[in-house]
Here is the input.
Amino acid sequence: MKFLVGSDHAGLSLKRQLIERLRAQSVDVVDVGTDSAASCDYPDFALAVARGVAAGEADFGLLCCGTGQGMAMTANRVPGVRAAVVADTFTARSTREHNDANVLCLGERVVGAGLAGDILDLFRTTPFAGGRHQGRVSKINALDGAKAARS
Here is the structure.
């Protein structure tokens, strides 16, 4: 399993802690940045992760910023990405099981490191249920074609 991971300055500390957790679980991790606490633009890192996941360079993406929202808004602009902001374990499980989310967005100012680790573990290990959920995810994926046509 491979994760592409990115953050802005507001999510740097959480990102570093979660990278350690993933590596301790023998998950392959590629960190696309930032590596500094200096103010930076979250869309740059969200796009790097989202484009890599969409291209099949990794199984999943992990993005951390202050709230997770800006990262998700940016990542979801990339066709093939289903990014979810998660702040609880129920949503972590459901977003994988029902929505086949492939990018997890976390807010360092919203969730603590312990909860974030539990969320990440559930996101990473919960399979997509398919079945009745597949048709719904297919409808989401069909929107990617509409995005491309508008571009």
Observations:
- The chain has a mean pLDDT of 96.
- The two ends are 32 Å apart (CA to CA).
- The first helix runs from residue 12 to 24.
- Residues 68 and 106 are 5 Å apart (CA to CA).
